[in-house]
Amino acid sequence: MKERWLWAGIIISSASWIGNSFYYQSKQIEHPIFLEHFYEASDDGKQYLKFYYLANRNDKEDVQSVRIKDAVLFPYSRDDFMSGENTPPVEQVYTHQDLKVFTVSLEDLLSQMNNKEAFSFNKIKVAMNNGQTFTADIGEVTINKTYKEGKILEQQIASSDNLSDIAIYQALKPITLTSISLPFDKETERLVSVKANTNQKALVQIKNNLSGDGPSSWLKHNEKNDDGFQLIAPHKKFSIRLKKKDWFEIVAKSKPNTAAFGEFSIKLHGTSQGKPAVSNVWVTLKPVLSQNDIDRIISKNGVREK
Amino acid sequence: MRESFHKMFWGFLLILIEIHIVALDILPDPAGYYLVFSGIVMLKKDSPAVAKAKYLALGLVFLSIPAVFIQQNSMGSTAEKVFDLSFWPIYTQVIAILKLILVFYVFNILLDIARRKGDQQLCASARHRLIAYMAVMLILNITLPFTMNFIGTLVTAYTVLFLLLSLLAEIMFLLLLRKYRKIFSS
């Protein structure tokens, strides 16, 4: 083997190393990027708020704590025997970044709040374990006062996956539904589309099948009978009359290309026996993000300055 | 000459094997390069490869001192955690390339010795191992940096395969040194 082959190989490998290193550096983010979240929670403190963020895979620094109004919170973990020692776990791996989740115990948050009234926030102050701090936009979180609603629709079956929430209700009283509203103004309207189904025959069949084959069978059934659904949009009046014991199905689907996480309720407005009535339908959004989604989020939020 | 190959064999084995206890390599690379250096010094000095290999091995005795404290096979990430120095991966890469050049010269010394002895079989064996070693190491050095920017099971499988191949190439090189030691002990 001639020596010049060795030198040629070394030159190419150096070029490969330098080129890849520069490309790698150009893809690093300056500090963790928090994604958008739209969470509603009640002040009974039973919930956990999961804040998702992107962090460079090989960074030694990680999020240590977050400050939400008066409260300083460390990542919550189920096996939390040493508070503050936890590091947020990785949910998903991407080319240069990891998607991690910082879980906040609502109980912990509420116990540190001076003002116990309902509140909302859209920014958190993040402290890294190297002492660096920054403010992150996290979408919007509202903590509501717990209240008991007069039950008119009783949930019988519910199923959710990353892209949709399906629930079947039975009316406890006669009700006429006339509109829906979504929280966080227009923000959540761009995230989900809502459909309703009142095809009693199909819904009774689903209910009957459920005892036999389990939830997966009625989900498939659902897709087949999609023409029984009507799209219901916020701010648009409609009229769905339900007699007592009538069945009512509602499907909330993530719109394509949405990268926000959500846990909130859609409000169904109507009248029951002459009185205004409101029913809540709980929606959970947990998008599965592609590398393209991640690239888009990063290009919107900026990469590390050299 | 037997003693010379004996030293080189142990020298390169010491460089190959890294056993880290806390942050220290208990089989330090500088000791390995020193053994290689002293092995080369014992050879006749009439080949240009001997002179080049000798100085390179001597240089590496000193240059590899920081490597005692880092794990080179972790691509510098451990080092970054311990030392917080961003030039560490560059250092590891430079050492790897210098070692590759040293092995190339040692192979050439071995080829030269086989040719002088007129042992065609030994010469062919050394030549094949030289080509295989250089091909694996150069392809690995050229392609491994791409793993910084690509992920996936295929990339992992490729990396594992080539790391195993490189280990095989190192073992073949060590066995060749042992073979020389055996041949020249008589």
UniProtKB/TrEMBL annotation, chain A:
Keywords tagged on the record: Membrane, Transmembrane, Transmembrane helix
Keyword Membrane among UniProt keywords: yes
TM ranges: 6-24
Entry superkingdom: Bacteria
Name recorded for this polypeptide: Uncharacterized protein
Organism: Fictibacillus terranigra
